[in-house]
Amino acid sequence: MNNSVGKNNRYVRNMNRIGIIGLLRDYGSLTKAEIAAKMDLTFTAVNNLVEELMKERLIIEAGLYDDSSRGRKPKLISLNPADKYSVGVHISAASVRAAVINLQGDMLFTKHCSFEDSANRGSVVNIIISTIQAVLDKSGLESEIIGIGVGAPGPLDPFQGKILSPPNLPGLQQVRLKELIEENTELPTHVEKDANVMALGELWYGNGRHFNNLVYVDADIGIGSGLIINQKIYQGFPFGAGEIGHCTIDINGPRCTCGNDGCLEAMASGIAIVRRVCEEIGRGTESSLCSYLNGENQNLDVADVIHAGLAGDPLAANILHESACYVGISLANMINLLTPETIILGGVLANRYPDFYNHVNETSFNRSSSSFHNQMVLQPSELGEHAGIIGAGTIVFEKYLNEMSD
After folding, report:
1. 302 within 8 A of 349, measured Cβ to Cβ
2. If DSSP codes are grouped into helix, strand and coil, which group holds residue 93?
3. How much is the pTM?
């Protein structure tokens, strides 16, 4: 027997289950016949898939379809958002956020904690675990929560659930985070790179819903990207795909935290923007941001620069524009290399500074092949600053559906 045939059948079946859930998220309630028509499947195939999903309480009957015609009215099917939940955890360089997520992608209970010392391993781990435990206690739903998903800065090993060497969060270096969380919560835990979970969240609940292949770019304190190919996270070999922030953009550029020179992250990230502002003010450039520094760089952060840019400060606006151009050049390279159906741009820079997205859009299209970018959609994140949490919780639902195939 060809084992690949069985694996392929399981993959297709699982994709069809996810497809049904996606349709019900988009439309609310549908009949089996409507689902079959929208997915181009036979009624029998849909009926079998619906029975499996109903057995797992992922979907429920939602009354009868009334089209005012005579005859037996078909039953409507909808998602069941009140039976199975996950916990989504998003770890950034400065803080951790956690939330209980339902199948609709709604965040029901949330908790946010900042790291007191991002280099202190014990402190960072304790804050992560206490934040997760806080939302579990607050929800009162522990018996209905099927797992915990974690989006964390890379590089990391998603198969072992081990954080390797995140340059902006030294307190998590070589930490077996999956093991520690499972020991403390007794819930199955899945750890994935932060940009990957953001991409998955957009695929399920955001602007990636109608695409099979997409790239999510997280333009934030650091810069990363997540790749979705055939509706699955693409991890590469072994698991480091999507490190756009550590691709060289200027061979003579500044040293990056990864040890390379001229990386996109060193040229265009939130950290780089703050550095550039401080350098220019140090040279005597006038700016409303001078008052933040008080002679030192430590009091200024990227949110201050964004606020100044929105208020019309020339220095802030120029440096944000420069950053967006570097990101746009990198996306042009990605368009030419991967030809994705869509690129979704998120992160604090894109989410909070609209001109950043506009400049990225203009630059990427001007510098990529028209044969490719004319067929591709570049768009902002729909989930915004919640993409990491919702995407992390989505991993749990996806894993659960995969296990139904075994």
Report:
1. yes
2. coil
3. 0.92
Closest CA to 273 of 236, 222, 216: 222
Tell me the C-alpha to C-alpha distance, in Å, between residue 365 and each of 210, 258, 317, 318: 22, 29, 21, 20
pLDDT band for position 296 (cuts 50, 70, 90):
low
Quick: pLDDT tens for 307-331: 999 999 999 999 999 999 999 999 9
Express each pLDDT in 156-186 by its tens digit. Answer: 999 999 999 998 899 999 999 999 999 999 9
The CB density around residue 395, as the number of other CB atoms within 10 Å, is 27
Residue indicated by tokens 């990491």: 388
Q: Distances from the Cα of 304 to the Cαs of 39, 236, 318, 351, in angstroms? A: 47, 36, 14, 14
Contact 115, 124 (CB under 8 A): yes
**Cβ neighbours of residue 399 closer than 8 Å, sequence gap 6 or more:** 147, 188, 190
Q: Peptide bond before 340: cis, by omega within 30 degrees of 0?
A: no
Which neighbouring-strand residues pair with 112? 97
Q: Which helix (H) or strand (E) holds 59?
A: strand 59-64
CA distance 374 to 385: 28
Measuring CA to CA, which residue among 221, 217, 88, 127 is closest to residue 166? 221
Name the fold adopted by 207-381: Nucleotidyltransferase; domain 5 (3.30.420)
Which positions ≥6 away from 69 have C-beta within 8 Å?
none
Q: Quote the tokens at residue 262.
A: 């001229």
- Cα separation values, 382 from 214, 351, 390, Å: 14, 9, 12
Question: pLDDT tens digits for 110-143?
Answer: 999 999 999 999 999 999 999 999 999 999 998 8
Both tokens of 302, joined, read 């990227």
Superfamily of domain 85-201+388-404: ATPase, nucleotide binding domain (3.30.420.40)
pLDDT (tens digit, 9 = 90+) per residue, 229-274? 999 999 998 888 999 999 999 999 999 988 899 999 999 999 999 9
Find out whether 162 and 174 touch, Cβ atoms under 8 Å. yes
Q: Does the fold of domain 207-381 match that of domain 3-79?
A: no
Cβ–Cβ under 8 Å, residues 346 and 269: no
CA distance 314 to 401: 51
Query: What is the signed CA dihedral for 360, 95, 228, 345, rounded to 10 degrees?
Result: -20
Does CATH number 2.60.120.1440 belong to domain 3-79?
no
